[in-house]
Task: structure prediction
Amino acid sequence: MRCRILGAPVQDGSGRKGCEMGPSALRVAGLAEALAELGHEVEDLGTAAPRPLRPAAHPNPAIKALPDIAAWTEALSEAAYAASAEAMPIFLGGDHSISAGTLSGVARRAAERRRPLFVLWLDAHPDFHTLDTTRSGNLHGVPLAYAAGLPGFRGYFPELSAAVDPKRICTLGLRSVDPAERAALAQAGVTVHDMRAIDEHGMAPLLRAFLGRVAAADGLLHVSLDVDFLDPAIAPAVGTTVPGGATFREAHLVMEMLCDSGLVASLDLVELNPFLDERGRTATLMVDLTASLMGRRVMDRPTQSY
Result:
């Protein structure tokens, strides 16, 4: 497969500094080398830059860095659209606000191809707030709502050329959802699998059912992997830790099933904050998970001695 890597060093959407170092940490951890070892053609497009800032003020006084995130969203939407031409783009965050741009860009590409775009959102949080409902004001909590075409973004974020149908979105691993998001998810028809559902039914049956829907519709699948999808015991390098996340094996199982499906067309790797990491362990894990998604099998793992 032809892979295009693009860095998006955005930290304005988070309430904590450090995510802008995420793309560099993923590169240092050997992302490109891991993909090349699996036989993929890898092109590193370097680092995206935001568009010029435009003044913007919103009635919600909690909102932070609105002009900055709007400028990044515009730039990343165009970059994602371009990178998704005859290649699989892998976007290196940066906080999860980058997905407002990456999702809108790949949705435009999917619409041109006349194929439905599905989204697998691997995250402790649904990021389904609008500009009106966010209480923290941190705009890494709104990208999925924006890409799904929820109201309240017009005049602040770029106009969507193609929205993602909420009924084609699956959130997996949720364990921290605000009341406004809970209501919005239900009203929009998003498939929600929180950690209790995973505990009760297992990761594989839930994911298999969703992948079956994607395959039946001849869809393209965008995967957005947030570090806090993982349990903080194995992935501490994130500013939004929530206990009880996916285990090492659960996370690799998800990636291996995605690989087997052959449906993944684009990928986000977000919320890696190297300043909070322990000797690069989280960055290394994110690279290993990406390698699993791109073809590394469980039996291919080298034994490590300490």
Notes: The mean pLDDT is 96. DSSP finds ten helices and eight strands in the chain. The chain has one domain: 2-300.
